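Reopening this ticket.

The earlier resolution said the output was attached, but the attachment link was broken on my side. Pasting everything inline this time so it's all in one place.
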Amino acid sequence: MSAAGLMGLTIPETFGGSGADYVAYALALEELARVDAGTAVTLSVHLMIAGAILRLGSDVQKSHYLPQLAGGDVIAGFALTEPDAGSDAASIRSTARRSAGGYALRGRKQWCTNGGYAGVTMAMFRTGAPGAKGISAFLVDNALPGIVLEKTTEKLGIHTSNTVDLAFDDVAVPATALLGAEGEGLNGALSALTTGRIGIAAQATGILAACLEASVKFAKEREAFGKPIAAFEGVSFKIAQMATDLDAARLLTWRAAARCDRGERFALEASQAKLFASTAARRHAAEAVQIHGGYGYTTEFPVERYYRDAKITEIYEGTSEIQQLIIARALLGRLE
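Inline output:
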């Protein structure tokens, strides 16, 4: 991916990147996910952090990190979730206490994507009072003393995506590690996740495209009762709906990406794209297994992997329920 320029896909050319827009980003991630969803999310998170540095970072941070990320010399990771703080990110407990010349980071982070081999991690720590305003973002060198890789998580799917638990035991970072203003870290994380949702929507779309491709091929080749199973409406109707939902997922994703590229608000559209594409990927991955029958339940055919990979797209970077909440609030406002 580095040799192809993908690791710096959305990083400006001035920092060694390809300077592509987010429509190109969506296209690339869909195509990667069509082959391997774990590889797609590895790149998605890497570029999500690069985008956060581009938006929030100081000139020094940009000039230091972005060329390394663009060239693939360093991979970026993300650390927000904690054992007791998932969707309710404002309740994180990990702390960053001021020390001589910087901060001391302490706490435990769970499900850190790319965390096992990241060179730099965007991590959230509490610098102030409880609540969203007390959280700050830091760019942390993963080689620093005091960072312990506690566990590599074994997952249902996306096995090619690295997911770990990281412990921070009074990790000393300089004041220059602060990304953006102190107390604005959660806003920075949520902003990064909004862009990242375009990537997850594209990932789900890619899984769905793979399901369609495999299902069409198998339905034409597999015969039952003297004819291809594609001739039976019980199969062909599943494929027709799969193709229709694929186009819908693609168009929703491209719309969100295009609004992002134009500098327009796109949070609502990104949530709609992620919600629809992830739901469709999970549903049609199950249908792809059903079309393959007993073969679909074996590792001889890839649809069992698509089925396992699809589910996570409804969970990470904001669950489907969180996406529905975002969409509802955009339309109705906060009613509580």
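Reporter confirms the inline version is readable. Residues 275 and 321 are 9 Å apart (CA to CA). The first helix runs from residue 22 to 35.
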